[in-house]
């Protein structure tokens, strides 16, 4: 382990009692999220993040070891929190249609709550990202599990709605779930927290579009 890596490990170990360290680390992660969102993971360099954070590259290494580590740090908390919230909605006593409303709302609001971290996650091509992080099989497994868990949650709610006769669709629940996920994730191209409509308004509109479509029984 290099000298800077040892100092970084020691600082991280004592970070709980070091508000200044935590504040600077959070600022660096915020800067990283901004640059990843603007430039994409592959095009971003640590020097870009250092410039955004207002530190020199040498100082940056005191807080983080690599671009890959920063990427994991900026998306992990946001994505994990969103999945946990979605699981609570799915386990609730709400009807399937209302669960869909709340799931859409939770994701759109999380895009604001964790802006731009959630969008950093959804905008990446993970086939290429996994190649870039080829030495980190655990991270690849984590990302795959996140995606699978969210898909299964949404597909399960849609299946319940179809089985109970509350929803109707000529497409299987899995395809409907993928369409819905794609619609919400695609908002990374146009949604901004300070835009014409806020996240709550957009979520209500999306939910109405989806549920209106699922309420129509095909002949």
Q: Can you describe what's shown?
A:
The chain is mainly α and 219 residues long. It has 2 domains: 3-60, Arc Repressor Mutant, subunit A (Orthogonal Bundle), CATH 1.10.10; 75-214, Orthogonal Bundle (Tetracycline Repressor, domain 2), CATH 1.10.357. The chain contains 11 helices and no strands. Helix 2 (19-39) crosses helix 5, helix 6 packs antiparallel against helix 11 and helix 9 (137-163) crosses helix 10 (173-185). It is elongated and about 60 Å long. 28% of the residues are buried.
Q: How many structural domains does the protein architecture include? A: 2
H-E order: HHHHHHHHHHH
CATH superfamily descriptor of the largest domain: Tetracycline Repressor, domain 2
CATH class of the largest domain: Mainly Alpha
Tally of alpha and pi helices: 11
Query: What's the mean pLDDT score?
Result: 85
Helical coverage, percent range? over 70%
How many strand units?
A: 0
At CATH level 3, the topology of the largest domain is Tetracycline Repressor, domain 2
Largest sheet: none
Low-confidence stretches: none
Q: Compute the CA-based radius of gyration.
A: 20 Å
Strand content: under 5%
Q: What is the CATH architecture term of the largest domain?
A: Orthogonal Bundle
**Separation of the first and last Cα atoms:** 67 Å
Shape: elongated
């Amino acid at each position: 382990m290099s000298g800077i890596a040892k100092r970084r490990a020691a600082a991280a170990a004592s970070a709980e009692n070091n508000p200044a360290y935590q504040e600077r680390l959070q600022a660096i992660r915020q800067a990283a999220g901004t640059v990843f969102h603007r430039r994409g993971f592959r095009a971003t360099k640590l020097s870009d993040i250092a410039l955004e954070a207002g530190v020199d590259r040498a100082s940056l290494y005191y807080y983080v070891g690599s671009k890959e580590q920063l990427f994991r740090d900026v998306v992990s908390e946001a994505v994990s929190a969103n999945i946990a919230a979605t699981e609570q909605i799915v386990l609730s006593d709400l009807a399937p249609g209302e669960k869909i409303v709340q799931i859409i709302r939770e994701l759109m609001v999380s895009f604001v709550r964790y802006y731009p971290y959630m969008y950093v996650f959804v905008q990446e091509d993970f086939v290429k990202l996994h190649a870039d992080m080829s030495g980190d099989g655990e991270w690849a497994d984590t990302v795959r599990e996140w995606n699978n868990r969210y898909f299964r949650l949404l597909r399960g709610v849609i299946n319940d709605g179809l089985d109970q006769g509350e929803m109707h669709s000529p497409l299987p629940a899995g395809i409907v779930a993928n369409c819905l996920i794609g619609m919400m994730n695609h908002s990374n191209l146009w949604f901004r927290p300070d835009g014409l409509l806020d996240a709550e308004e957009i979520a209500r509109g999306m939910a109405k579009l989806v549920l209106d479509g699922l309420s129509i029984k095909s002949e």
